[in-house]
Amino acid sequence: MNQMILLYNDPIEEGYVILITGLLIVFGGLILLTIFFKYALPVMLDAYIALKQIGVKKEKELEISKPKVDKREFTGEVTAAISVAIHMYLKKQHDEENAVLTIKQARKLYSPWSSKIYGTQGNRL
Amino acid sequence: MNQMILLYNDPIEEGYVILITGLLIVFGGLILLTIFFKYALPVMLDAYIALKQIGVKKEKELEISKPKVDKREFTGEVTAAISVAIHMYLKKQHDEENAVLTIKQARKLYSPWSSKIYGTQGNRL
Amino acid sequence: MNQMILLYNDPIEEGYVILITGLLIVFGGLILLTIFFKYALPVMLDAYIALKQIGVKKEKELEISKPKVDKREFTGEVTAAISVAIHMYLKKQHDEENAVLTIKQARKLYSPWSSKIYGTQGNRL
Amino acid sequence: MKKIILIFGVLSLLIFARPILGLNSNALNDKTTTTLLQTHEEPEETFISEALGGIEQFYEYTGFANAQAGHIIMIIIGIIFIYLGIKFDYEPLLLIPIGTGVILGNIPFVAGNQTGIYEAGSVMNYLYFGVVKGIYPPLIFLGIGAMTDFSSLIANPKLMLLGAASQIGVFGTFLGALYLGFALPEAGAIGIIGGADGPTAIFLSSKLANGINILADGTTVKNLIGPIAIAAYSYMALVPVIQPPIMRLLTNKKERLIRMKPPRAVSKKEKMIFPVAALLLTTFISPSALPLLGMLFFGNLLKESGRTERLAETARTKLIDIVTILLGVTVGASTQADIFITKDSMLIFGLGAISFVIATMGGLLFAKFMNLFLKGDDKLNPLIGAAGVSAVPDSARVVHAEGLKADPRNYLLMHAMAPNVAGVIGSAIAAGIILSFLG
Amino acid sequence: MKKIILIFGVLSLLIFARPILGLNSNALNDKTTTTLLQTHEEPEETFISEALGGIEQFYEYTGFANAQAGHIIMIIIGIIFIYLGIKFDYEPLLLIPIGTGVILGNIPFVAGNQTGIYEAGSVMNYLYFGVVKGIYPPLIFLGIGAMTDFSSLIANPKLMLLGAASQIGVFGTFLGALYLGFALPEAGAIGIIGGADGPTAIFLSSKLANGINILADGTTVKNLIGPIAIAAYSYMALVPVIQPPIMRLLTNKKERLIRMKPPRAVSKKEKMIFPVAALLLTTFISPSALPLLGMLFFGNLLKESGRTERLAETARTKLIDIVTILLGVTVGASTQADIFITKDSMLIFGLGAISFVIATMGGLLFAKFMNLFLKGDDKLNPLIGAAGVSAVPDSARVVHAEGLKADPRNYLLMHAMAPNVAGVIGSAIAAGIILSFLG
Amino acid sequence: MKKIILIFGVLSLLIFARPILGLNSNALNDKTTTTLLQTHEEPEETFISEALGGIEQFYEYTGFANAQAGHIIMIIIGIIFIYLGIKFDYEPLLLIPIGTGVILGNIPFVAGNQTGIYEAGSVMNYLYFGVVKGIYPPLIFLGIGAMTDFSSLIANPKLMLLGAASQIGVFGTFLGALYLGFALPEAGAIGIIGGADGPTAIFLSSKLANGINILADGTTVKNLIGPIAIAAYSYMALVPVIQPPIMRLLTNKKERLIRMKPPRAVSKKEKMIFPVAALLLTTFISPSALPLLGMLFFGNLLKESGRTERLAETARTKLIDIVTILLGVTVGASTQADIFITKDSMLIFGLGAISFVIATMGGLLFAKFMNLFLKGDDKLNPLIGAAGVSAVPDSARVVHAEGLKADPRNYLLMHAMAPNVAGVIGSAIAAGIILSFLG
Ligand code: NA
Ligand code: NA
Ligand code: NA
């Protein structure tokens, strides 16, 4: 693909073209993705469920109730709660990490690379 | 080993030869294996134990009682019981798998590839 | 670096030179390491702590007390106790290993390489 | 509804932008020349027109500009693989990586940029090396050995013959491929699909039908690794669909009700000796199968020795996982449309389906044949013969499920495992034989 | 005090032994010839003098004899990297391996003994292969995909645009590098530092600025993999230092207080479809980014399929760990002083710093721009725009921390993850674009 | 009894079928020509006779037809290795893979089919690459570093000298090999067996005695990787057999009763600084040992940094396991009878045994020598000198066990670890020195 370089004699000029082109393409690409997930996917999922309802009336009770629960159970409020929990978790983490390390090191004292020690670790893991 | 191909001018003819030869060899090989495990191995194991009994009279009590228990304890009935257990295990498995996944996903929410998060997972595993 | 070989016409003679040279260098190198860890490192660590005390008076309480505890808590007596524990651990190990294996084998009976079984193990690990 | 129109509008804009921009993927080379001339002729063009030129130029390199029917078909096939794996749990550890690989291999690209799996220097090409050189399959077999319990085979060695009988599928398909006009080595590689063993199929085809070897008549052998691997794994995944009707066709209710006596217990020593003895006997018979059988029994020895549990654990978890990921995605990507969509591939798929049927029948009928010589509670339930095709352990499960349909208390799983693993050994021996004759 | 003198004495003895032994590392070749002549002229010399000769001769090969200022400087830099990683927890999984690698690469040695990373046949050279050929980065991306949850992006796809806006850092730096006189491919590789994504930077520089490609004017492109990788990883580690001032500069208190509504819940099906759809759309747009984006979404599919947890687990733990170790140590070792300490490296470090600033500003300002069109609780907290640079998840954490400073109950982490991962996708697309234009 | 006859009958049938079929493995080429002629001369022969011809032809390629005394001997040796590993727990993680490899390497095969480890293109050959190029040993050292605790060495640095003293085994054996007529680089590689460190032995022999390098007199150096590796690992496994008599011979009861004071506690900071400082000092002294020492201390830094536990865990578990499997099986397989069973191999085994004895004595006597200068509770128990040979941690355990025999409450394990790990460092430095002189 080296021919592309030949198009412009001045690298700076080509640089500007690549800058503009590149940004447009990146934006274009991610806008495409945005549109797909914002509009296309929900439609497709609805269509899929609709198709299923028509085709497979028999297993209705089980199949349909399940995804609905999935959607409702995990709403924004839960998300917020988890967000807080994660925040706290990330804060605390450091102390715990150190504690774990200490215990681990104590257990591992003097356990270099013998095959027998290999075996020991193998059992523990 | 390309010379083998030259033996027959007609590929189809050679094909038949390979078909017959191949099947005979596969059967021959697996029959050999069958004979070994059905007849040779028990004899060899008996011989080994006999040799041991002659050579090392001292550690008799411990050594000999052990393999015998091994053989008796795990008989056909136990095997059948395990078979049933496995069958039930394989059936149940699916539900458990989903449960495990849900818990895991909740724990892992928003934990992409930071080194700090690496560390977190490292501790958990 | 092949030129080195040319230095001496007699391999045996060169052998003696390499023997003496090699031993001197190995000893020299490890003596250097000994000196560093026996004398240089403690000095450097003291200097580091001293520098820290001058520079960062503010966090004095937390920072300084910590390493001292680290040093005192884990003294020779504790080490000796651990040494005994390891000794006993290494002795016992064998029986435990067998027990673990038996349980593992029972669990794993008839679980060859299907993807579904892969999945099963994945959950357990 | 409005939304659907919006989306279809955007997508069609991209795909049909070709005529609008005055481009045509087939006329790519011409066009570039033209563009080149234009820019030289019009040095005063504005900056915006240059940027548009850049986009136009870039557009030629996008998948939208280069997509052909073949790419789209293959991508849909890839998506179907993934769907089957997720929805029906058909060998997902294979179908999902392979399906993704099929998509990756068929993203339309302009050659020369080290993107495609067949371009030297591309990342996919480096990872594909393990397939082309047959390195991944023995590593998979190492892990398989480390996770397989051969107890049921040791307890009842005569079931080994059911694994041998199923190899009629391999040799029968080989003959069929010869009749369809494939060269001898190509036919050998195609035949192994009947072994119902993915790694063995990849190993043998990488040695025989790799697009490198020269035939006796001076022509180069075809590269059939992709179609053979895809066929082998597809049908393995479809074992629960293919086998049951054949099983019902060839057995009557009475046969399906036969209860086999529980296998005898197997001692630890026997389990330790098995891999060593089996390694020696099988590789003495078929030395060309050494990489497969050697690694299989090496893995099993690691498992059974009782001293190397650590290594066995790694072999059957992380090592096999890594190789499975790389193998799956590169085998999938090797189905690049221009190389994959050929008459040969179609023939191979047809032959593959037949080979599974023959292999299943071979095992079943041989079990019935053996019953002629066996008495009392030594009689075999002929269903377990079907497990001789390999496809471990799906095939044994199918047998188990069929047995349960006839008698809900007849647990055939353990019995079926014996021919199941024997089928793997048999297929590897068969691969070695074919390699010796045609390699 | 006595001890210090003792130690300094020993060390200076070693380093200043050069003049004492009558040697000079620069005059190495001359000296060897002399030694050679001497031994031939004096065959009667005693054994002890020969042994001394041996030590003298060996001394020439030690690091003490060959150390130059560059080596010492680089070793100190390596130690600083390790110190920063341990002391301040700045990306220790990267800085510690890279720092150790910097030390390893700058141990002074005499060429010809297969020791250095640039010597064919050396172990380091074999391990470096995965960097030079761009093999490690896609494997890292595979693991990243298997550990990334794209939920927040799926829930709020418009945040994808913030990841796009940050790419101004890439293209702006590219232009800057051109102005500083770098050739087009070199400038492209330097620009990608602004993507704040180590693997992408290594991948692109291994393709464009690898010391192998030939430019249009017949000169060979420079090998800038080392400096670019080091710059990318250094600044990624310094994100908590670089970003906060810019964030405070470009936002007012009111903006920083904006609370965003919690993202909607995302169904399992959406999460499964995301990797496949995103894979298709992004690689159709930028096929040259296939190795990166293909592996990223492949890993994510393994994670989300619900059937391949085993493979995903391996990809995101042991596989990525192994590759991280090898990548880190070899990238570090590639900074061998004589190749690394150049004006180009200094320029690259300067451009890298600027690129991070531009990228952060781009994301922030675009978030403010988007707010012009959004109403009510749809408004964005512009801080999250800064997370568009990638540097996952450090950048999102910095945003979270800044948000907490303004309002201790405003948890921005989940919102910031969306532009954060979008930045990765955006940078990979940008890398593909640059590769298409300049590859 | 009947059974035994049956089995022996079958096996002898196979092995003695040679004369029956009118074949002789030595006359293989002649025979094939004859077969070829026959088939052309008798085109009317029946189908069954053709099939028999096929079997006859195939038989020539089986192990039964090609087995020679060497193969059988080596296979028995392989089985003995496995037996020793399982029965006596002698380094099973090494002996079982190596033993299996010995079997795999000595399955008789006809060359030309990409089966053997020395045939280009075979799977074993690709896996052997990591041995030939010395890539596996540094990766093993990385894992070793990540599992080694250097505390006892840091607490008592003077014990480092015991590790140095043991290197007399390396240089003494080197001299012995010269006297036996080996060329300088070959002797260097043989000497390193005395280092009692498998990976170091493989690394050095892959650089010096690899069958590729050209000597000063124009001849090619011998490929001694196989025998050296096997000797090193065999004697390492036999440390519990070799060392105790020497220890009892050179120490009296009083010396064996010496109780050493418990080592001082070592701070976290010291443990972090150790790998970096040791890396710099040792590689400055012996830059050619960089791949080994660099990776050893890199692994240790990953362990001790407290920030990279994740990477250290992978390095010391899955990574080292994978490399151990591949290294063991390929080193074993490299003992292909026709290459391995030579007078050189016998000499190497003899020299290897002597080297272990010298090294053990060196360490012990130097400990007694050091005691002349030490007073009170600083005195060393000379037994710990024996641990200086490396063979970590078996050698330290042997010391511990001997100490317990003299005084059931004298726990020497921790004290013995210091010379034990120092022995590893010393051997790696020695390897670097030899490489610098002879590389
Ligand atoms: Na099969
Ligand atoms: Na980015
Ligand atoms: Na040693």
UniProtKB/TrEMBL annotation, chains A, B, C:
The keyword Transmembrane applies. InterPro entries: Na_pump_deCOase. One of its GO terms (molecular function) is sodium ion transmembrane transporter activity. GO terms for cellular component: plasma membrane. One of its GO terms (biological process) is sodium ion export across plasma membrane. It is found in: Cell membrane. Keywords: Cell membrane, Membrane, Transmembrane, Transmembrane helix. Its main location: membrane. The chain crosses the membrane at residues 16-37. This is Uncharacterized protein.
From TrEMBL, chains D, E, F:
Keywords: Cell membrane, Ion transport, Membrane, Sodium, Sodium transport, Translocase, Transmembrane, Transmembrane helix, Transport. It is found in: Cell membrane. GO terms for molecular function: lyase activity. The keyword Transport applies. It is a multi-pass membrane protein. Pfam families: OAD_beta (PF03977). InterPro entries: OadB_MmdB (IPR005661). This is Glutaconyl-CoA decarboxylase subunit beta. It comes from Pseudalgibacter alginicilyticus.
